[in-house]
Amino acid sequence: MTEIQSLYLEESPETTLTLNFGSSGSLAQQIQQGAEVDVFMSASAKDMTTLKDAQLMNDDTIKNLLGNEVVLVVPKDSTATITSFDQLVDPAITKIGIGEPSSVPVGQYAVDVFNFYNIMEQIQSKIIYGKDVKEVLTWVETANVDAGVVYSTDARASSNVKIAATAPADSHKAIIYPAGVVKASKNNDAAVAFVTYLSSDAAKAVFEKYGFTIL
């Protein structure tokens, strides 16, 4: 998004574009509480639906932009021989990092995958919950956990982790990144223009470079 921000400001230098990163659930809560936000981009269709149902979004501006994959990562120097999520039951794996499911979409997807493999009960005591996917990735990078569940794009952006397994598409809810204009925006025209830009060829090229799937 910072790369897209630079590209967009070259085309629209009169725009002030401020990015606020956080877990989708936390950002949605901020909007519900009246935070001044023009555009909401979520890593979860669920959080967008929550705002839409609360009549806080301009519905006709919402676009499903991107897709992603859920992966299991281990520290780069790990000697663990995990090749599938169901191997997390191995006693050698004592700490597993995932996002807090109530507010972090990838945490929700992780629980979906664990239930798909019917291992949630067996590994529950090993799970450590992070405030967002970046925290989980940092834990894996620093070997503070034996394994973690993140997005494919996060794993690809780090040189300190390796992907041990990719979750089957049917093991979790579809990963969709929607974006739309917040109804309370005081900069509606500029917000609509930016959401439209996120579907442009220039923006798509950036997203694809980082491993996202274009919807």
Round the Cα radius of gyration to an integer and report it: 18 Å
Biggest sheet features: 5 strands, mixed
Structural class call reads alpha+beta
Number of helices: 9
- The average pLDDT score comes to 96
Explain what the structure shows.
With 215 residues, the protein is α+β, with helices and mostly antiparallel strands. The radius of gyration is 18 Å and the shape is elongated. 37% of the residues are buried.
Secondary structure blueprint with pairings:
Layout: H1 2-11, H2 24-32, E1 39-41, H3 45-53, E2 63-67, E3 70-75, E4 96-99, H4 105-116, H5 120-123, E5 127-130, H6 133-141, E6 147-151, H7 152-156, E7 161-166, E8 177-181, H8 188-197, H9 201-209, E9 213-214
Parallel strand pairs: 4-5, 4-6
Antiparallel strand pairs: 1-8, 2-8, 2-9, 3-6, 3-7
For the structure shown, list the relevant keywords:
single chain; 215 residues; alpha+beta; five-stranded mixed beta sheet; 36% helix; elongated
Concise structural overview:
By secondary structure, the protein is of the alpha+beta class.
